[in-house]
Give the backbone structure.
Amino acid sequence: MIDLKALADLSYGLFIVSSYKDGKFNGLIANSVFQVTAEPPQLAVALNKESLTHEYIKSSGKFCVQPLKETAQMPFIGIFGFRKGKEFDKFSKVSYKVNTEGLAVVTENTLAALCVEVKQKIDLGTHTMFIGPITFAEVLCSDCKPLTYDYYQNTLKGKTPKGATTFKDYQGGVK
Amino acid sequence: MIDLKALADLSYGLFIVSSYKDGKFNGLIANSVFQVTAEPPQLAVALNKESLTHEYIKSSGKFCVQPLKETAQMPFIGIFGFRKGKEFDKFSKVSYKVNTEGLAVVTENTLAALCVEVKQKIDLGTHTMFIGPITFAEVLCSDCKPLTYDYYQNTLKGKTPKGATTFKDYQGGVK
């Protein structure tokens, strides 16, 4: 029995994942982000190979993960989530600063920034998992709630684009 | 700057992860579970190398992930989360069935079962990440809410044991 509706019961946050190449920044929205060890603190993200952010991370060997605030609105999320970085300069539309790692930290609608130096790249077929230790971590709002993937789907009625780790044909009919 | 309080803004679910060896079942509680590709649907989990479940997954090459219901209570969670499988038969204390993969599916306090055949083992130092396609998926409750790690920490006041991917010395003082 393989009833993939069971996948809807996995819980996630929602994050901007960003990197740089040739003096340009780009980012996307991902849910597949997690801490994989405590000592040292390491993060893993799984990104679609066709995304520009994937190309930038392969090039720079670095990325930042930024949990979104629960109050982030769809037009903001859409800048990172529903536009193609190859066609559109996403960072021209948002406030950000450049940190000591040379990475862009979005300073609106985000709770924190956690940046990683990639030590392992795992080929997953359509996606690559990038894993490495945290080299930069900053809290941007200490009493804000993070946006969960559940809240995004069920309260904001956000969609999951094709290419996401959690894209599903049966989407919309699940819960 | 490395302010690890930023790690508290990553969102997770809470899961029983289980496997078998020599006719015995064992499982533990983990939060580091996520879907990493959609086609085919693949899951990843990161488990501490010292856990018995880690040994069982290495032996069988299979595991099941079961999201907990939000209504699961601490005594039940504690069976899997705060006892050592090497000293205690956890499955003697819960209701379960054995599925077509030969894996145990806990039938109380869980929403679903998603079982995986391991195709990749990634060495992360203290932990191993096991990744593979879903070979069995069953919804056990279609209108139940999953327990999130946030709800576990902040409403149930659950602790994170040493050995977890998200264990932190500063725990309790975060949020």
